[in-house]
Amino acid sequence: MNQNPSAFDRQILHTDLDSFFTSVEVLRQPQLRGRPLLVGGSSDRGVVAAASYEARRFGVRAAMPMRLARRLCPEATVIKGDYESYNQYSNLVTEILTERAPVLEKASIDEFYVDMTGMEKFVGCLQWAKETKEAIVRETGLSVSWGLSNTKTVSKMAANENKPNGALYVRAPEVQPFLWQLNVSKLPGVGEKMAHTLRCMGVTKLGTLAQIPRRLLEKTFGKTGLFLWDRANGIDPTPVLPSHKQKSMSKEMTFQVDTMDVKMLQETLARMVEMLAYDLRKSGFCAGKVTVKIRYSDFQTYSRQVTIPVTSSDHQLTLAALKAFDALYNRRLLIRLVGVSLGKLVRGTEQLALFDAAGDVVSSRLPALYQKTDRIRDRHGEQKIGRASNFKLGI
């Protein structure tokens, strides 16, 4: 295998908080320990955001419809979820790692990468990983799994193979033997459709995938084929980024009853955009892309995106979202879910002219209006103010 020697010598740790949402709920409500737990929408139309390991034994998994999850595990306790608490615990872990780690990347609310290359000459990477895990458990009470190897992909897979409360060090010479005995579905980035396609080709193990000529995979799958070959052979030059750049913000809503009420759908999108725009301004971002997602009653899902000049203004973002929705929606079909995400995020505040392109002086008053409404939300909560047409939605 032609692998970059410098990459061969890297030491990258992946730290994963086990069943994070349900673990936090157990810390907040100790009487739930040992019981099957589901975090997500409590109605039959809801979706499972997280399942405890006790619930997973019944076949329950994240993103599963709550109705099916309850059928598989009728004794499960369903919790709506407290995302403020989840963020607080995530920040506690971030602080612990930041104080100790030379280079830290927070990949998600419950996953972290640490580049420890060079530390083996001092404290030793394996010892550092063990001591850091002990510190997280001691100071937060959360269960942690970690994987240590020479790439981000392998370290993540090592952590996944030993959950919960596990640890695995895959040294550079052991990378290929470790990878090649795993199913292709274990490779991060390989979803159900790709795994199915590979199985239909007779490829079930990463070892088989790694032996397919690279050019053949490229011819079959394009750039994705190159990605598959590299990762199956343990090649991943992706660096650990010291400050993970936020790429998007999103919200979605699953309806209690499938609907074709266009006005209600538009109002739902407008309310979600209003809340996202508030989050944008609060975080100091502007967005340059709006994406709308629709899931029909048959679970077919489609999306449409609109690129716009960077903005954090409700009215500009809402116009873009409604434009994408109108281009996307087939009005003959019932809708189960709608979602919207804001992408191409950039740091900074929007610079608005006194008059907009149409010479409308009203636009010059909007920044001051947003500042006032944001202050009300900061003090009294997001639900206390908004467009009158959106209040009845209860989003």
From TrEMBL:
<feature type="active site">
    <location>
        <position position="111"/>
    </location>
</feature>
<keyword id="KW-0235">DNA replication</keyword>
<keyword id="KW-0238">DNA-binding</keyword>
<dbReference type="Pfam" id="PF21999">
    <property type="entry name" value="IMS_HHH_1"/>
</dbReference>
<dbReference type="Pfam" id="PF11799">
    <property type="entry name" value="IMS_C"/>
</dbReference>
<dbReference type="InterPro" id="IPR043502">
    <property type="entry name" value="DNA/RNA_pol_sf"/>
</dbReference>
<comment type="function">
    <text>Poorly processive, error-prone DNA polymerase involved in untargeted mutagenesis. Copies undamaged DNA at stalled replication forks, which arise in vivo from mismatched or misaligned primer ends. These misaligned primers can be extended by PolIV. Exhibits no 3'-5' exonuclease (proofreading) activity. May be involved in translesional synthesis, in conjunction with the beta clamp from PolIII.</text>
</comment>
<protein>
    <recommendedName>
        <fullName>DNA polymerase IV</fullName>
        <ecNumber>2.7.7.7</ecNumber>
    </recommendedName>
</protein>
<dbReference type="Pfam" id="PF00817">
    <property type="entry name" value="IMS"/>
</dbReference>
<keyword id="KW-0460">Magnesium</keyword>
<feature type="domain" description="UmuC">
    <location>
        <begin position="12"/>
        <end position="191"/>
    </location>
</feature>
<keyword id="KW-0548">Nucleotidyltransferase</keyword>
<dbReference type="GO" id="GO:0000287">
    <property type="term" value="F:magnesium ion binding"/>
</dbReference>
<comment type="subunit">
    <text>Monomer.</text>
</comment>
<keyword id="KW-0808">Transferase</keyword>
<dbReference type="GO" id="GO:0003887">
    <property type="term" value="F:DNA-directed DNA polymerase activity"/>
</dbReference>
<keyword id="KW-0227">DNA damage</keyword>
<comment type="similarity">
    <text>Belongs to the DNA polymerase type-Y family.</text>
</comment>
<dbReference type="InterPro" id="IPR053848">
    <property type="entry name" value="IMS_HHH_1"/>
</dbReference>
<dbReference type="InterPro" id="IPR022880">
    <property type="entry name" value="DNApol_IV"/>
</dbReference>
<dbReference type="GO" id="GO:0006281">
    <property type="term" value="P:DNA repair"/>
</dbReference>
<dbReference type="GO" id="GO:0006261">
    <property type="term" value="P:DNA-templated DNA replication"/>
</dbReference>
<keyword id="KW-0479">Metal-binding</keyword>
<dbReference type="InterPro" id="IPR036775">
    <property type="entry name" value="DNA_pol_Y-fam_lit_finger_sf"/>
</dbReference>
<keyword id="KW-0515">Mutator protein</keyword>
<feature type="binding site">
    <location>
        <position position="110"/>
    </location>
    <ligand>
        <name>Mg(2+)</name>
    </ligand>
</feature>
<dbReference type="InterPro" id="IPR043128">
    <property type="entry name" value="Rev_trsase/Diguanyl_cyclase"/>
</dbReference>
<keyword id="KW-0963">Cytoplasm</keyword>
<feature type="binding site">
    <location>
        <position position="16"/>
    </location>
    <ligand>
        <name>Mg(2+)</name>
    </ligand>
</feature>
<dbReference type="GO" id="GO:0005829">
    <property type="term" value="C:cytosol"/>
</dbReference>
<dbReference type="InterPro" id="IPR050116">
    <property type="entry name" value="DNA_polymerase-Y"/>
</dbReference>
<dbReference type="InterPro" id="IPR001126">
    <property type="entry name" value="UmuC"/>
</dbReference>
<dbReference type="GO" id="GO:0003684">
    <property type="term" value="F:damaged DNA binding"/>
</dbReference>
<dbReference type="InterPro" id="IPR017961">
    <property type="entry name" value="DNA_pol_Y-fam_little_finger"/>
</dbReference>
<dbReference type="GO" id="GO:0042276">
    <property type="term" value="P:error-prone translesion synthesis"/>
</dbReference>
<feature type="site" description="Substrate discrimination">
    <location>
        <position position="21"/>
    </location>
</feature>
<keyword id="KW-0239">DNA-directed DNA polymerase</keyword>
<dbReference type="GO" id="GO:0009432">
    <property type="term" value="P:SOS response"/>
</dbReference>
<keyword id="KW-0234">DNA repair</keyword>
